[in-house]
């Protein structure tokens, strides 16, 4: 049995006494070893990083309008049903952080779907968790909003902070298109226009004119507006956006249109994460355009958002570990075989040339 197996030995070993070790062979072996080690390490890094596959599917529809109808109902049981539905996956959080450096909080109103702060319906329209407040800006917020670069601001009078306002908070929105407006309040706008037109505050009730005889400057800075969880692989275009109304009057409307793409992101060994990617277009509508179109919109910020019918799926995965091991073995063996063939070809060619010269 032993002689039979010995005859099939494919790894015949040369006798040490007839093997010749050379300096050039040592360099070739060292080069092959370094190359194999580098390829081996790069293969491990590529395997650990994984691959992200992208695909598009039709987005699933949700009965959000039904829940809005239940929420607006006078029935307590229907409202409880709407709140329970809102706490599930039928609504997403919309986080807002905007600073108006030249507009007092008393002169700001915000609204959504016809429900406004001034009418009191905004608070009742939204469901818990709900936080949406107006407050004085911090020094850092004011610097970002009042100056394009914070290094331009050296010393700021604390009275300047009293003139500004920051709107910050989170509201739960249904997965249907809508409009969020943060603008000059109707009363403040009427007071400002009456002062400009007639020189008299026709609506004053003992309170001083908040704009000091000027039109309201609605320049603002969007620190962050986020829909749902942030997408890990992309940036948010509604972050650190500066809208300067440099037309002399400070009156204009920043119109921001947002297309939200439902996105699922799944990492290896992690749960599926539902996020939204935002694609935006924006432009500043000047007061002349608002007047010529007889628009009822007030100066400020208008965010119009809608959801696309297509969803994007990002799946991060790794190849089968058997394929990974096979590639590692193939790298090590392939490098040494290739180097051996090349070195053998070079040596044999050099010997053949030397014989001809002799």
Automatic annotation (TrEMBL):
Keyword Nucleotide-binding listed: no
Endoplasmic reticulum vesicle transporter N-terminal domain: from which residue to which, for each copy? 5-109
- Chief location of this protein? membrane
- Give the membrane topology, semicolon-separated if more than one: Multi-pass membrane protein
Q: Does the keyword Transmembrane helix apply?
A: yes
Name a GO CC annotation attached to this entry. Answer: membrane
Record domain Endoplasmic reticulum vesicle transporter C-terminal: where:
158-342
**What InterPro entries does the entry give?**
Erv (IPR045888), Erv_C (IPR012936), Erv_N (IPR039542)
Q: Which domain of life is it from?
A: Eukaryota
Going by the UniProt record, its keywords in alphabetical order are: Membrane, Transmembrane, Transmembrane helix
Query: Which regions span the lipid bilayer?
Result: 27-48, 321-347
Q: A Pfam family for this UniProt protein?
A: ERGIC_N
Compartment list: Membrane
What family is this? Belongs to the ERGIC family.
PANTHER family named in the record: ENDOPLASMIC RETICULUM-GOLGI INTERMEDIATE COMPARTMENT PROTEIN (PTHR10984), ENDOPLASMIC RETICULUM-GOLGI INTERMEDIATE COMPARTMENT PROTEIN 3 (PTHR10984:SF25)
State the protein's name.
Uncharacterized protein
Q: Which organism is it from?
A: Discostella pseudostelligera
């Amino acid at each position: 049995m032993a002689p039979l197996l010995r005859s099939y030995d494919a790894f015949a070993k040369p006798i040490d006494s007839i093997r010749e070790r050379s300096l050039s062979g040592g360099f070739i072996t060292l080069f092959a070893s370094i190359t194999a080690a580098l390829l081996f390490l790069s293969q491990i890094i590529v395997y650990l990083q994984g691959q992200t596959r992208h695909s598009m599917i039709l987005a699933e529809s949700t009965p959000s309008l039904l829940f809005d109808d239940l929420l607006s109902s006078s029935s307590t049981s229907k409202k409880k049903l709407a709140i329970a539905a809102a706490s599930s996956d039928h609504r997403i959080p919309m986080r807002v952080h905007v600073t108006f450096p030249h507009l007092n909080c008393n002169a700001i109103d915000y609204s959504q779907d016809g429900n406004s702060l001034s009418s009191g319906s905004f608070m009742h329209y939204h469901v818990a968790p709900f936080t949406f407040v107006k407050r004085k800006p911090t020094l850092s917020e004011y610097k970002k909003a009042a100056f394009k670069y914070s290094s331009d601001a050296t010393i700021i009078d604390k009275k300047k902070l009293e003139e500004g306002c920051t709107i910050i908070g989170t509201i739960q929105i249904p997965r249907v298109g809508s409009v969020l407006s943060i603008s000059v309040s109707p009363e403040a706008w009427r007071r400002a226009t009456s002062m400009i037109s007639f020189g008299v505050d026709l609506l004053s009730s003992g309170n001083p004119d908040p704009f000091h005889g000027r039109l309201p400057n609605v320049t603002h800075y969007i620190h962050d507006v986020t829909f749902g969880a942030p997408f890990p692989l992309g940036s948010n275009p509604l972050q650190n956006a500066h809208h300067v109304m440099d037309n002399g009057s400070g009156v204009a409307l920043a119109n921001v249109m947002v297309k939200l793409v439902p996105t699922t992101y799944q990492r290896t060994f992690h749960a599926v994460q539902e996020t939204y990617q935002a694609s935006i277009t924006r432009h500043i509508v000047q007061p002349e355009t608002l007047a010529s179109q007889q628009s009822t919109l007030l100066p400020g910020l208008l965010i119009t958002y809608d959801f696309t019918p297509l969803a994007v799926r990002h799946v991060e995965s790794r190849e089968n570990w058997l394929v990974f091991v096979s590639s590692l073995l193939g790298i090590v063996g392939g490098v040494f075989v290739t180097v051996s063939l090349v070195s053998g070809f070079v040596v044999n060619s050099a010997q053949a040339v030397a014989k001809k010269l002799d």
